């Protein structure tokens, strides 16, 4: 859903990307540094129940998540390894955020929140895996209702709201939306893969 704003977002990052390149930083260094910042911030703030600080910290670094790609395109240094590293780093960041929320919920005796966070975690990884596996087969595996940016915005909005005093049920709803949206997206990608596989088999038969 939020992918429609990607063009405007990327243009906004371009001046920062050029500044970092002039400073001698590489896209891969920015990828690793940004991911470490997200992971450490999630563990330190969200893991201690500081939901406002944690949500804002993570949001700031996630907003800069596209910097590495913008830097690579600006400098003409787009590589397959860079894409691999970025995708792997994204999985680490996403997994840490949801795992920490699950752990924190469990320490509060909130089994519902912990369970929903784990469901959202599994769903998010399945969305990414469905795309990766489809592309290995030569099919298009992207698309769907809940892509990465959608999942993160919903989770962080729910976490921030609870940190500001909203009832815990708000976080439950956010995590439930991500879990359900992820499951729907996986189903959409599987259906898309099935159509493409069927079309390929029909062409091969003729």
Brief rundown of the structure:
80% of the residues lie in helices and 0% in strands. The chain has helices at 6-22, 27-45, 51-63, 67-75, 80-107, 111-136, 148-163, 169-205.
What can you see in these coordinates?
The chain is mainly α. Helix content is 80%, strand content 0%. It has helices at residues 6-22, 27-45, 51-63, 67-75, 80-107, 111-136, 148-163, 169-205. Helix 1 crosses helix 4 (67-75).
State the secondary-structure class: mainly alpha
Beta-strand proportion: under 5%
User: How large is the count of helical segments?
Assistant: 8
Order of helices and strands: HHHHHHHH
Report how far apart the termini are: 38 Å
Shape summary: flat
Low-confidence stretches: none
Gyration radius (Cα, Å) is 18 Å
Helix content: over 70%
Overall pLDDT: 88
Sketch the major β-sheet: none
Total strands:
0
What distinguishing features does this structure have?
0% strand, 80% helix, 206 residues, mainly alpha, single chain
Outline the fold blueprint.
Blueprint: H1 6-22, H2 27-45, H3 51-63, H4 67-75, H5 80-107, H6 111-136, H7 148-163, H8 169-205
């Amino acid at each position: 859903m939020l992918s429609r704003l990607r063009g405007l977002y990327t243009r906004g990052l371009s001046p920062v990307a050029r500044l970092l390149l002039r400073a001698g930083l590489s896209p891969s260094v920015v990828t690793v540094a940004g991911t470490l910042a997200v992971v450490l911030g999630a563990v330190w703030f969200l893991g201690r129940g500081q939901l406002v600080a944690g949500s804002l910290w993570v949001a700031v670094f996630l907003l800069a998540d596209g910097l590495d790609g913008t830097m690579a395109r600006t400098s003409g240094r787009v590589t397959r390894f860079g894409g691999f590293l970025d995708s792997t780093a994204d999985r680490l960041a996403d997994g840490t955020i949801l795992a920490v929320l699950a752990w924190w919920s469990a320490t509060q005796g909130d089994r519902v929140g912990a369970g929903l966070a784990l469901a959202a975690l599994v769903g998010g990884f399945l969305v990414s895996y469905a795309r990766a596996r489809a592309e290995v087969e030569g099919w298009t595996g992207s698309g769907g209702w809940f892509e990465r940016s959608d999942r993160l915005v919903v989770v962080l909005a729910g976490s921030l709201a609870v940190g500001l005093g909203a009832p815990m049920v708000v976080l439950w709803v956010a995590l439930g939306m991500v879990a359900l949206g992820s499951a729907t997206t996986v189903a959409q990608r599987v259906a898309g893969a099935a159509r493409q596989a069927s079309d390929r088999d029909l062409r091969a038969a003729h």
